[in-house]
Amino acid sequence: MKKILFIFFLFSISTVFSQNFTRQDTLRGSITPQRIWWDLTYYHLDISVNPENQSIEGSNTINYRVLHPNDEIQIDLQDPLKINKVIQDGKELNFRSEGYSHFIKLKKKQKNGQIKSIKVFYEGKPKVAVRPPWDGGITWTKDSNGNHFIASSNQGIGASIWWPNKDHMYDEVDSMLISVNVPKNLTNVSNGRLRSVEDYGETKTFHWFVSNPINNYGVNINIGDYVMFSEIYDGEKGDLDMIYYVLRDNLERAKTQFKDAIKMMQAFEFWFGPYPFYEDSFKIVEVPYLGMEHQSSITYGNKYMKGYLGRDLSRTGWGLKFDYIIIHEAGHEWFANNITYKDIADMWVHESFTTYSENLYLDYHYGKEAASEYVIGTRSSIANRSPIIGKYGVNKRGSDLYSKGANILHTLRQITANDEKWRSILRGLNKEFYHQTVTTKQIENYILNRIGVKIGNDGDVNRFFDQYLRDSRIPVFEYTIDCSDIKNNCKMGYEWGNVVENFKMPIEVIIDGENIFLFADDKMKWLEIDYKNHIYKNTMKSPVKINDNYYVFSRKY
User: Fold this and answer.
1) What per-residue confidence (pLDDT) applies to 426?
2) For 444-497, what is the HEC assignment?
């Protein structure tokens, strides 16, 4: 494991040197020497939130296992928040800062296998979210009754925007206690299960415990005048508590709208396997922004509408059959929270699979044709201007992660040509990489080793992903019809254009009304076609149609 992390560190650093990024980008996005030597085991985030002056103060106790000796540890906390002091073994430690990366000097080098801890005290007014969840931070607002309504959202910008932590995705903490003190008339909802509430008269502290590994951007606080209702889902691993926290005035609306949650769980346990966090329950929490995939406490702000704020992203009608935020954010429990990227460059692992989960939800409840129409309908939002995979080691995501990624996965389903095998691959991913952080290579190798079809020339099975993830171009199925033979036959010449070298992929085409599977590559092939007549001989009208379920273009020449 240490060797793998060291190789990943070297790869991250070498990638950074070849790009125009800042020192801060490198400190945030790479596995630095001050991160690689220790493994997170436990956090206790213990804070007070003051809504009146929009401030936070408190501490984070960080437990870790020493992987190899070192005496300097990196903790991140972003301005304008400030670290007041750091304590280990009862002694205050010195630290230096570069931007929002803080390098804490330990009293001495620590030994392999030791379990150690530091306690970081901090305070200040965290960045206010400008356009949550995309431009994250803390949202401070009030509900219609004048009560404070507060929430965190921080993917991309980093969890260190509001609490001190090891702000890199490769290392998930094994478990966590989240203690949040708020004014007495408010409730805080965080991840995991509520252990206890301490009443101090004017304030209350809510203690939430997460018993499963959790990524740092999945940690959240949600503060408001909440009421709660719940139900039990009879799932693959037994009874699952499904708990909902909503604003007081929205209780009855939520009881109707959140019926999609049970339907979601039925579909996703079928396609992806058991919900990954039975021990921590499943929660939906209303927030003053659109929503996010915080582990075991997904957040909801879709205004109790079907679709995406009342819109069908596919323009087919199918997108109004479900509440987009409930389905999409819950899909992240499998792809983001269970299977988590090591580097945000591989963010497609989260967003592509989860956008595809909308399609699978429709497949389960409305059938395969509805699902296909939906995912194909989302293609209008695809730009194809830059690759899906971003830059490694600098906290840089790629492009077209959502609809394009979903259509890539839908194409793979067609290539697999066996729905039960495809389902076993999706379930297998969640079993193989259960509660793990992963790279794109791990995901693509798992899929291609089990798909049953070789994609690529000369034994190179990675050409499919090279094309769709590392190149922005979409393959073009190019063909020509030659009916010059005096016999009652024609020939079709075909090849792939707009592709990486040695690209090869099976494709289903309909020729003169007959479905035919072809293996096309980037070199011309010819196929004899027996036509009943030659009505296409002297016209540009084509007798060839590509199965729309494949995300490719076609061109007759």
Assistant:
1) 98
2) HHHHHHHCCCCCCCCCCCCHHHHHHHHCCCCCEEEEEEECCCCCCEEEEEEEEE
* Residue 247 Cα distances to 36, 128, 260, 378, 540, angstroms: 42, 22, 18, 32, 61
Residue 15 has pLDDT above 60, yes or no: no
Write out pLDDT tens, residues 48-91: 999 999 999 999 999 999 999 999 999 999 999 999 999 999 99
Classify domain 339-470 by CATH architecture: Orthogonal Bundle (1.10)
Cβ 491 vs Cβ 528: under 8 Å: yes
Supply the DSSP symbol for 214.
B
Instruction: Delimit the domains of the chain by residue range.
Output: 339-470, 476-556
**CATH class assigned to 476-556:** mainly beta
3-class secondary-structure state, position 413? helix
**Same CATH fold, 476-556 and 339-470?**
no
**What is d(CA 166, CA 208) in angstroms, rounded to the nearest whole number?**
20
Computed from CA positions of residues 346, 347, 350, 353, in that sequence, does the dihedral angle turn out positive or negative?
Answer: negative
Secondary structure class of 212 (helix, strand, coil)? coil
**Distance of CA 517 to CAs 15, 414, 527, 553, 555, Å?**
40, 11, 12, 16, 18
How far apart (Å, rounded) are the C-alpha atoms in residues 354 and 403? 10
